[in-house]
Design brief:
Elements (H helix, E strand, L loop, with lengths): L1 H11 L12 E2 L2 E2 L7 H7 L3 H8 L29 E6 L4 H11 L4 E7 L2 H10 L7 E5 L5 H14 L5 E4 L20 H23 L6 E5 L23 H5 L17 H27 L2 E5 L15 H15 L5 H13 L8 E5 L5 E3 L9 H14 L4
Parallel strand pairs: 3-4, 3-6, 4-5, 6-7, 7-8, 8-9
Antiparallel strand pairs: 1-2, 9-10
The structure holds NADP nicotinamide-adenine-dinucleotide phosphate.
Length: 397
């Protein structure tokens, strides 16, 4: 289990430990300052003065490869077969998103719209995964820009494709960052990308999902064990905690308000965990507001510890070297990208996973089960507040 990593890895690495440093953790795993690469810090330490210059760059023009939408095919017996489903997967250029896109595309039953910020990277990834050209389309989406999110929605609508399932998967994780970095609109990058970008995207695309005639329409927001303080992993500092949302309400800009949701000092690992709590709360708020009226299934999941993905790209080299074998051979919580992709593909398309408002997990035999969220990640009042504050920040209220 991934949560065991939280308990074991620190002691496994204790020889290198110099003292706890809140900004060098994953699942609360601390590594010593003296093993951190200076060059990593130098490149990561983006000063507030350079923020505007760096993040004021407008998103590149959206690129879309648009193909004709699928139509219902008549089966030989004259009966209509189910048309190909149309699924948008954000962050499908690597890791879980790519593995999910591949798993869905190779069934031939799904056309995957890979919503990615790097068009060429996504194209190369799809090719090297062996995805057949007719089963995917790449469209530009940068979740760290609300303009880009709106442009993506326009482009998607212009493509004429139906939307049957939306998967909010993309994320950034900045555990070693000393200073916050920001989205185009000036929100702290982790919460701005993982939560606010997806919040706007899913709110705008809800209308498209409603219009779908597909038998099972779904909106899936990827969660994480690390945001759940009812687990060992979620209990290792820095713990997720949204507090009274004072930082979020202030816009997370780090100028006249904190860059952290709870109003505290910047901590990249905590910002990621907080963003995941927002993801899980948003899914439940969607369920409460729209499931009955629309029939859409809203779900979240913890795909397992996929220790090899690019999510850990900003972590120190030693961590990246040791984390996969540690998960494989010590905690045995390791999940391959392929397996995690199958899990998420199940949540997209398995007829037995239509229950709404659920946070799915998998046991060691890879069987799915409804998992319990922590108190904060299932707090209905907090979910309502996060929803309302987020609406204001993304310009929907
Ligand atoms: N790995 C794990 O153990 C684990 C565990 C629990 C949950 N998760 C969740 O799984 C999901 C996928 O993570 P992963 O492990 O597969 O990591 P990953 O390989 O780094 O994938 C993240 C994806 O998000 C994309 N992305 C980042 N910023 C973006 C932006 N501004 N706009 C659009 N796309 C953006 C990345 O695009 P680029 O390729 O252009 O960088 C990449 O495709 C995340 O929601 C994560 O929280 C992962």
């Amino acid at each position: 289990m991934a949560l065991q990593a939280a308990a074991i890895l620190p002691s496994a690495l204790s020889i290198l430990k110099e003292g706890k440093s809140k900004d060098s953790t994953f699942l609360g795993i601390s590594l010593s300052d003296h093993v951190k690469s200076d060059s990593i810090y130098t490149s990561l330490r983006i000063k507030r003065e350079s923020k505007q210059r760096k993040f004021a760059i407008r998103p590149i023009r959206a690129q879309a490869v648009v193909e004709a939408p699928e139509v219902n095919q008549a089966a030989p017996a004259g009966k209509k077969t189910l048309r190909q489903g149309s699924v948008v997967v954000t962050g499908a250029s690597s890791g879980l998103g790519l593995a999910t896109a591949k798993a869905l595309a190779e069934t031939g039953k799904w056309h995957v719209i890979m919503a990615c910020r790097d068009f060429l990277k996504a194209e190369r990834a799809a090719k090297s995964a062996g995805m057949a050209k007719e089963n995917y389309t790449i469209m530009h989406l940068d979740l760290a820009s609300l303009d880009s999110v709106r442009q993506f929605v326009d482009n998607f609508r212009r493509s004429g494709r139906p939307l049957d399932v939306l998967v909010c998967n993309a994320a950034v994780y900045l555990p070693t960052a000393k200073e916050p970095t920001f989205t185009a609109e000036g929100f702290e990058l982790s919460v701005g990308t993982n939560h606010l970008g997806h919040f706007l995207l899913s709110r705008l695309l809800l209308d498209d999902l409603k219009q779908s005639d597909y038998p099972s329409k779904r909106l899936i927001i990827v969660g994480s064990i690390t945001g759940n303080t009812n687990t060992l992993a979620g209990n290792v500092p820095p713990k997720a905690n949204l507090g009274d949302l004072r930082g979020l309400a202030g816009g997370l800009n780090g100028l006249n308000t904190s860059s952290m949701i709870d109003g505290g000092e910047f901590d990249g690992a905590k910002a990621y965990k907080d963003s995941k709590v927002c993801n899980m709360l948003t899914m439940q708020e969607f369920h409460r507001r729209y499931h009955e009226e629309t029939g859409i299934t809203f779900a979240s999941l913890y795909p397992g510890c996929i220790a090899t993905t690019g999510l850990f790209r900003e972590h120190i080299p030693l961590f990246r070297l040791l984390f996969p074998p540690f998960q494989k051979y010590i905690t045995k919580g390791f999940v391959s990208e392929e397996e995690s992709g199958k899990r998420l593909a199940q949540v997209v398309s398995d007829p037995s996973l239509t229950k709404s408002g659920v946070y799915w997990s998998w046991n060691k035999d890879s069987a799915s089960f409804e998992n319990q969220l922590s108190q904060e990640a299932s707090d209905a009042e907090k979910a309502r507040k996060v929803w309302e504050v987020s609406e204001k920040l993304v310009g929907l209220a």
